[in-house]
Amino acid sequence: MANVAHLNCQELSSIAHLAQVTPLGFLSVSPDFRILEWNPGAEHTFGWSRDEVIGRPVDFMISPEDYSRVLENWQKFLVDNQTFSMRNRNVRKDGTIVYCDWYNSPILDANGNLVCVSSICADVTRQVESEASLRMERERFESLVDNLPGIVFQTEMDANLNIRVRYVSDAGAEFFEPESLENNGCMNYFMPAELPRYKAILQQVFESCVGVDSVFHMLDKHRNERYMHYVASTRRIESGDVVIDGVLIDVSNQYLAVRDLNESRTQLERIIQLSSDGFWDYHIETGQMFWSRRCCELFGLPTDSPLSADTIRSRIHPEDAESLRNAWQRAAETGTPYEHEIRVVQTDGSYRWIVAKGTPIFSAENKAVRIIGSMSDVHDAREARYQLSQLNQDLEQRVAERTAALNRMVHELQSFCHSVSHDLRAPLRSINGHAHEIDEHVGKAVSPEVTYALQRIQSSTIEMSELIDALLAMARLSQEQIRLTDVDLTAIAEDVAADTMLGFPNRTVEWHIEKELVAKGDSRLLGVVLRNLFLNALKFTGTRPVAEIRFGRIVRQDQPSFVVSDNGVGFDPRFKERLFRPFERLHSKDEFPGNGIGLANVQRIILRHGGTVWAESVLGEGASFGFNLPE
Q1: From CA 574, how far away is CA 576, in angstroms rounded?
Q2: What DSSP assignment string belongs to 582-615?
Q3: Which pTM was predicted?
Q4: Interval 435-484: pLDDT, tens
Q5: CATH topology for 2-130?
Q6: Residues 281, 290: Cα–Cα separation, whole Å
Q7: Which of these CATH numbers, 3.40.50.2000, 3.30.565.10, 3.30.1330.30, 1.50.10.20, describes 481-628?
Q8: Is CB count within 10 Å lower at the N or C end of the chain?
């Protein structure tokens, strides 16, 4: 450091002269960060004159973004007094930013104390901008290469077809193992059957320096088959080798799609030839037509006959020709598809019905350029339709006649019911009345047997009257219209249970009715069902001191069912099918009175809802009667 101080003292005038003539900025800065010297180069670089900056702290010309870093380096410099350089952004007088490279050296006195710092700065703004521009261009190029739809590569090939890989884009990592490309390793990625063709192309490239444009069947690093489109340009260099610049594009999907399309086209052509329908394709501008063999057959012509639009038109029935021509014209002009049944003449002069269909195909300019269509033989189907129509007319006539007869029968049944209700009740009332009069007039003058006979006459007339009421109710149920709604069976069951108990005031009954039972049905008719089932349960639990009657929902045979069960006498399950027949009884009337109609009414109502009924029991252990309804 002593030498530096000695040099600074002896050649101060030389340094000052150099500072005045150099184009570089020269500054002398005090240890407290103030400007002591400012040469013309600095004035040119930053725009401030010497008088404007002498004595000012340096921080006014340092960019705020770099200030902390500059200050950190300065403080470090004050400690170790070592020459250092740095690049930072500075602020010019006009406010613009300039990039400078700074070279800072300490100026020491004879005792080694820091006198000032000699700083030389070079304006490197253009260099920084050029580097940034170059870096941006490189990034753009790399991004472009990496985003190309394929693998960009560059290789060098000698006369022996040895290939050295110069460059492979990042996309290549998905296809190749990088280390596997050395020593002609790229050959291992071609299917064995493709290698002879690939080598022949390489030989031609080396001899003639031609480009490459071909699709190869290859294997990727995972040994998955790929179809790769290989496109490359070539150039010969001074050594005689050939440089190949190219791209590999995975076209597997497209290649396979084209292959499948060709296979589909072949299959379609076979199907067309085997189909019972004829197919055609008409090009509007050229007038060219394609007809399948079946079209010729439908028109009664040999399968190898040349067909044209005029030939087809000449073989259409005159009454059908105009409507088909108009449909054809609309399809060509407005794009409206058509479908017409027409008659075509056969070789024997007869006509046969076919369905002609057509739909237009449009160009990119939305102009109809083709009409494609089909022809189907519907002659037999049309004849069958005609016969079916005749049968339908006959059937409709018969249905109308049967309906009228049924209406007459219903009317007669209603009249019969009225007659039963009126004409049968009158004699019953008369018999019951006369028996009552005899009982009152004779009194105790007759024997007990006669008195018992009179009582039996009266009870029989009452029973007969109840039976007539039951029959009339059954008839009305068969005619009543069903109104389907969401029905709260729990609420209906609770009301019916309370109502039926009024007829059994001296009975002890435990009711168990499940909550939230809902079904789709006619609420009034379902109330009749529950009333009959509850009365049936009350009747057959009459011998129990405490009757238990339950109503709930179960799943039976994978279907939800509603069931009424009791702890009554039950029945023999061998005869359960008889329970739902009118007037059928499994117990004597003396044991359990009734008319045998209630369960029959239950079945009739559930069947009209589209459901089913069932019964289960063990004799002496109670019974269960259930039904299900469509959801």
Answers
A1: 6
A2: TT--SS-TTTS---S-HHHHHHHHHHHTT-EEEE
A3: 0.36
A4: 666 766 666 666 676 666 666 676 666 656 655 665 565 555 556 677 88
A5: Beta-Lactamase (3.30.450)
A6: 5
A7: 3.30.565.10
A8: C
